[in-house]
Amino acid sequence: MGNLGFKAVKIAADAVLYLLAALFIFPLYWMTTGAFKDQTSSVAFPPELIPSAPTLVNFRKLVGDGMIFHWLYNSIFTSVIATAGVCLVASMAGYALTKRKFWGANHSFTLIVVVMFIPRQITLVPLFTMMRDLNLVGTLASVILPVICLPFGVFLMKQFSQSVPTELLEAGKIDGCSELGLFFRIFLPVIKPAIGALAIFAFTYTWNDFLWQLVMLSDHAKMTINVGIATMVTEYVANYGLQMAAATLGFLPVFVMFIGFQRYFVKGITMGSLKG
């Protein structure tokens, strides 16, 4: 009886998980199928779950216009540079906060945690003022720089860095390794899975940072994919199929990024549960 009850609970739990998975995947399915619908099919009622007359007209319009490639390039460029910067800065901060004892280390980390709770909307005006004073408004640098010092990245890498044995670094120092050598040749290879997990988060965070990019970028040629898609909606016209096609193309780099770093992400989550 006990085994039957356990199996019944397991089947029910699996059914709930599959249902939740289907609910989460459905928006992606709707976006992808919507890319192959014309305007009439997009606004049809009842909605067409499966396109009755699939068409490539939306993709032809995007390719013919050519602006989609500028938007994709800008999004990929800003996300890659910001991700590299976040991983480097956060790794160095995690190394310093856990492996180098200095006055104020605990207070500094507490301040970083507090900053994580500040709503992004509150920082828009101060950040805009800084970018204006630096003459960076309207440039891709204004999108990249605020992301590099991401507080969550420092918090994440600090937690991961605690799992690195201090004895390993001390052995490297005895062998004559410099401070930079300890960081790049010993510390970084050990926390590679953690960097992979942070890279996924930083890339998707930068890619989806619509509000800040909307504030900073006004030149049509310098817009990212998210801001560019928003410009497709006018006061009187909204071509949903064209927007879905652009969103589908914009989803592909993020999907490739996740697939490429997935194994590091899983290892990073496991690694974060260990304490050195």
TrEMBL record:
Residues covered by the ABC transmembrane type-1 domain: 72-261
Membrane topology: Multi-pass membrane protein
PANTHER family associated with the record: ABC TRANSPORTER PERMEASE PROTEIN MG189-RELATED (PTHR43744:SF12), ABC TRANSPORTER PERMEASE PROTEIN MG189-RELATED-RELATED (PTHR43744)
Main location: membrane
Signal peptide: none
Protein name (record): Carbohydrate ABC transporter permease
InterPro entries per record: MetI-like (IPR000515), MetI-like_sf (IPR035906)
Organism field: Paenibacillus gyeongsangnamensis
Localization of this protein: Cell membrane
Cited Pfam families: BPD_transp_1
Origin: domain of life: Bacteria
Keywords recorded for this protein, A-Z: Cell membrane, Membrane, Transmembrane, Transmembrane helix, Transport
Membrane-spanning intervals of the chain: 12-31, 71-97, 109-128, 134-156, 182-207, 240-261
Family statement drawn from the similarity comment of this UniProt entry: Belongs to the binding-protein-dependent transport system permease family.
